[in-house]
TrEMBL record:
Keywords: Hydrolase. It comes from Natrinema ejinorense. Residues 515-525 have a biased composition (Basic and acidic residues). InterPro entries: Alkaline_phosphatase_core_sf (IPR017850), Sulfatase (IPR050738), Sulfatase_N (IPR000917). Residues 7-345 form the Sulfatase N-terminal domain. This is Sulfatase. It comes from the Archaea. Pfam families: Sulfatase.
Length: 525
């Protein structure tokens, strides 16, 4: 029997979801019955590596097929510029495209919604015009100021206040049912002869945890979300302690959020089955990053590249993939090429010369559907990751992760520390930039302010005992792979960066309307 033609792609990101909290990955609690059902007809990948441990750079990589240092979207420069996105390519090729999420980073203001015919962020902490107009202009002005390029400090205060509001019950209502409903409406209304591409980000598992009562009673009975620490910066700064009982309550709330998300996702899956669209739809489900709940004395998903953050769940349903489990290493940015192959779209022919930016060419060595997958010696124009693997001293495959200094998280951390009378040392990990190479057996993390860390994941999956490259050849080979990647992207992050904290000139070139709008919101004096 000929496989069913794939007319559509549903791409779902479960924001901030750890792999080990899902049924398909062996979690003992029944958090994800719908995802477990889906796993029975999908390929479940055990060793999927995210290119960064937070939303903005990961989504920019998913949408461009580039590593973070290539596309440049990060907190110091929080917008995707001069890049033809996956949605742009598919829209130009005739597909209806839509993006629905409740994540503040996936908005017109960051450029991540470029190319989508329909989109809505469902993010209500700040007015839409601030996220898409004046704020973008102001941040651009600040970022282009050479004195403040590393820290767009004035606008950081705006972002920090928005995140602070998210960390309270005030802005915590789940938007997931609305996201699912809008996705169904988009699919229902799609009239393209080619098909549709729907991208969905579900935010329930991101702090703060305020799950619907029915799920809270099942997974965190008796727990009041307002009674537990919902601000990771309080813990990471040393201003707040969390004991074992409180961690158990926090994890219960987290599980409840995942269960709610799973039920809503199952509602969408069932509707696709009932409407006869399931068989012709490629479905990709992944997390953009995970979360730490006390492991390594950290809370949240900043300041580290441990596996709880970057070894993410990935499940893909497509006729060319068997319903099976795979242990081989894959990278999330490979999803860009996988979607293009699923719909048989070539960016070079789909995107006209008039399109802004450059698109990454479809590469079979990076498509999960290709028999040439990860055979990088066949790559026409090897990217930094491919180059690093090809230059390696063996047949070991690696994924690569990058984490530049986190501007907003660092601001929050310093604020919480200051309120508690704590002075953070210069060698605190929050000030460090991090890069890592990861194989299925080992990881090596390079940092500019804290010691490097090497681990044998095959013997120490929880990364509890760091190993020097001189003491282990597998770790040494991983460090060499990282060095190859660093060379390919422009050099290692060896020297600590200095951040200019002077705000005086931050908006000197911004127009008065922008400054006045920020004053009205309380973010400028």
């Amino acid at each position: 029997m000929e496989p069913t033609r794939q007319s559509n792609v549903l791409f779902v990101v479960l924001d901030t979801v750890r792999k080990d909290r899902l049924g398909p990955y062996g979690y003992e609690r029944e958090t994800t019955p719908e995802l477990s059902r889906f796993a029975q007809e999908a390929t479940v990948f055990e060793s999927a590596v995210a290119p960064a441990p937070w939303t903005l750079p990961v989504h920019a990589s998913l949408f461009t097929g580039r590593y973070p240092s290539q596309h440049g979207a990060d907190q110091g420069s929080p917008y995707l510029e001069n890049a033809t996105t996956l949605a742009s390519v598919l829209s130009t090729a005739g597909y209806d495209t839509a993006c629905y999420s409740s994540n503040a980073w996936i908005t017109p203001y960051t450029g991540l919604t470029d190319g989508f015919d329909h989109h809505d962020s469902f993010f209500e902490v700040l007015p839409r015009d601030v996220l898409s107009g004046p704020l973008a202009s102001a941040w651009q002005t600040v970022n282009d100021n050479e004195y403040l390029r590393d820290l767009a400090s004035t606008i950081v205060h705006l972002g920090a206040k928005a995140h602070a509001k998210l960390a309270s019950g005030e802005g915590a209502d789940s938007k997931t049912p609305s996201v699912i409903d809008r996705t169904k409406s988009f699919i229902d209304d799609s009239g393209s002869d080619e098909g549709w591409f729907a991208f969905v980000n579900l935010m329930d598992a991101h702090l703060p945890y305020y799950p619907p009562e029915e799920y809270r009673e099942e997974f965190a009975p008796g727990v009041d979300p307002d009674d537990v620490c919902q601000n990771s910066k309080e813990y990471n700064s040393g201003a707040r302690a969390i004991d074992d009982d409180e961690w158990e309550a926090i994890r219960g709330l987290y599980d409840a959020e995942i269960a709610h998300m799973d039920a809503e996702l199952g509602r969408l899956f069932e509707w696709l089955r009932e409407t006869g669209q399931w068989d012709e739809t490629t479905v990709v489900v992944c997390a953009d990053h995970g979360e730490l709940h006390g492991e390594h004395d950290l809370y949240g998903h900043e300041f580290a590249l441990y596996d709880q953050l970057i070894n993410v769940p990935l499940l893909v349903k497509h006729p060319d993939l068997e319903a099976d489990r795979r242990d081989d290493l894959v990278e999330l940015l490979d999803c860009y090429h996988t979607v293009l192959e699923a719909l048989d779209v070539d960016p070079e022919s789909a995107v006209t010369a008039a399109a802004d930016g450059d698109s990454v060419a479809r590469d079979p060595t990076r498509s999960l559907l290709s028999s040439e997958y990860r055979a990088f010696d066949g790559a026409a124009a090897p990217d930094p990751g491919q180059q690093a693997v090809l230059e390696g001293d063996g047949d070991v495959d690696y994924g690569f992760v990058e984490y530049a200094q986190p501007v907003i998280e660092l601001h929050h951390l310093e604020e919480k520390a200051s309120e508690a009378g704590i002075e953070l040392p210069d060698d605190h990990r929050a000030y460090a930039r991090l890069r890592a190479a990861r194989s299925t057996d080992a990881k090596y993390v390079r940092a500019d302010r804290i010691p490097d860390e090497g681990y044998r994941l095959d013997a120490d999956p929880d990364e509890e005992s760091a190993i020097e490259p001189s003491d282990d050849e597998t770790v040494a080979a991983t460090e060499r792979a990282l060095a190859n990647f660093e060379d390919a992207v422009g050099g290692a992050w060896d020297d600590p960066t200095e951040t200019d904290r002077d705000e005086a000139d931050a908006l000197a070139e911004a127009d008065e309307e922008t400054q006045e709008r920020l004053r009205e919101l309380g973010y400028l004096e």
